[in-house]
Amino acid sequence: MVEGIPGSPASTGLIDKVKAILLKPKEEWPIIAADPATPGDIVTRYAIPLIAIGPIASFIGGQLFGHSFIFVSYRPGLMAGLSSAIFAFVMALVSLVVVTFIAEFLAPKFGGEANRRQALKWVAYSATASWVGGIFGLVPALAALGYLAALYSLYLFYLGATPVMKVPEDKAIGYTAVTVVAAILLSIVATAVTGSVLALFGGTAALVSRHETSGGTLTIPGVGSVDTDRIQQAADRAEKMANGDMHALNASQLAPLLPASIGSYARVATSSTSTGMGSQAQATYKAGDRQFDLRVVDMAAVGGLAGIASAMGVEHSEENADGYEKVYKDGDQMVTEKWSKSGSNGEYGVVVGDRFMIEAEGQAASIDELKDAVATVDQGTLEGLAG
After folding, report:
1. Which residues share a beta bridge with 362?
2. DSSP class of residue 46?
3. What is the pLDDT, as a whole number, of residue 201?
4. Separation CA 111–CA 153 (nearest Å)
5. Which helix (H) or strand (E) holds 371?
6. Spatial CB neighbours of 325, under 8 Å, sequence gap ≥ 6
């Protein structure tokens, strides 16, 4: 279990703090209000482990059970699943920053105190029910139950307004409602311009101060355990990117890793994409009527989430007369493998260094050709580019 937040008067563990705010919020809010924990402690040792539950659960659920919408069912590939999980994780952190600033700004207008640390406490602990409710994402059919948890978070929000933000009781409902509505509107904008919002508010670094933390294990009942050092690494990467101390590699640095030929396959096309949050270099290889793509992706700062998912020991295997697909761990690496006999096509990918993805996808004589294609990318050189 993760150790209690340093300096907390009720120096309890993470799970105990979660239980307290969920089961006896009226008694817990005054304790939270008096808690001298720093913003960095609140974010990295309380918020981030809980925020990670939803994306991890959704990722695992998608890989194991797939997703269904009306009459359409699909199971996302490893890269698509990781991308969705990473986006959800980042947006939750962005939302935490945005709502904290809104809460601080509005408090005096309702007779309360403008205090950023108190606003962060109010937002983070109120969101506990919603974050924990993300566990329902393990079984996509039950994901809707997470909305019930979100409603309970609104109730916690209301209960904490007076003890934490010093808003008079008769104005607590109005303060809560206006804060939530403003947060929803700004979060919609934040979703479209995540990078701009991080720059505007100084990113998570505006709330997180550098500090030493001890290792530990976060146990999610019925799911498994996560090494909290992996979570801390993900948080550190996000902070470095927000401060401009870390950048995704340019696609031009990745492109040379893609060989001119692979066995009998010749490279016939290349493409590349670079953004502030990641980059990708891709090449298409062809031999006769067979063709596949080999790509190298830098997931940059938020790639740490891939390490968290890998640490969960995600595994899945499915097989029928036409082929198979599976997700498994090979050493410390997460691997996805898929093959269709009828189409002579498949997919093989590995996550390298909790940051990079090497994937081959398309038609080939066998899955071994796709594995050989991935093996042509020197993993040592790739990790060396990250410095």
Report:
1. 292, 346
2. I
3. 34
4. 23
5. helix 367-375
6. 75, 316, 317, 318, 336, 337, 338, 339
Which residues, at least 6 apart from 88, have a Cβ–Cβ distance to it below 8 Å? 54, 55, 58
Query: What is the spatial distance between Cα 155 and Cα 142, in angstroms, rounded to a whole number?
Result: 22
- The identity of residue 132, as a single letter, is V
Q: How far apart are CA 124 and CA 128, in angstroms?
A: 7
Q: Distance between CA atoms of 25 and 9, rounded to whole angstroms?
A: 16
Q: Looking at 45-54, 257-266, 276-285, 290-299, which range is the least confident one?
A: 276-285
DSSP string of 319-356, one letter each residue = E-SSEEEEEEEETTEEEEEEEETTTTEEEEEEEETTTE
- Does residue 110 contact residue 327 with C-beta atoms inside 8 Å? no
d(CA 352, CA 115): 42
- Which pLDDT does position 326 carry in this prediction? 85
- How far apart CA 54 and CA 133 sit, in angstroms, is 7
How confident is the model over 190-227, as pLDDT tens digits?
444 444 333 333 333 333 333 333 445 544 444 445 45
Report the distance separating Cα 370 and Cα 363, nearest Å: 9
Evaluate whether 223 touches 60 at the Cβ level (below 8 Å).
Answer: yes
Reported CATH class of domain 251-385: alpha beta
Confidence of residue 51 (pLDDT cuts 50, 70, 90): confident
Residue 278 in tokens: 């990641």
- In terms of Cβ atoms closer than 10 Å to its own Cβ (0-12, 13-18, 19+), residue 22 is middle
Of 387, 362, 386, 385, the residue nearest 373 (C-alpha) = 362
Interval 107-131: pLDDT, tens: 998 899 999 999 999 999 999 988 8
Q: Which helix (H) or strand (E) holds 315?
A: none
Which of 75, 205, 93 shows the shortest CA–CA distance to 140?
A: 75
**Per-domain boundaries in the chain:** 14-242, 251-385
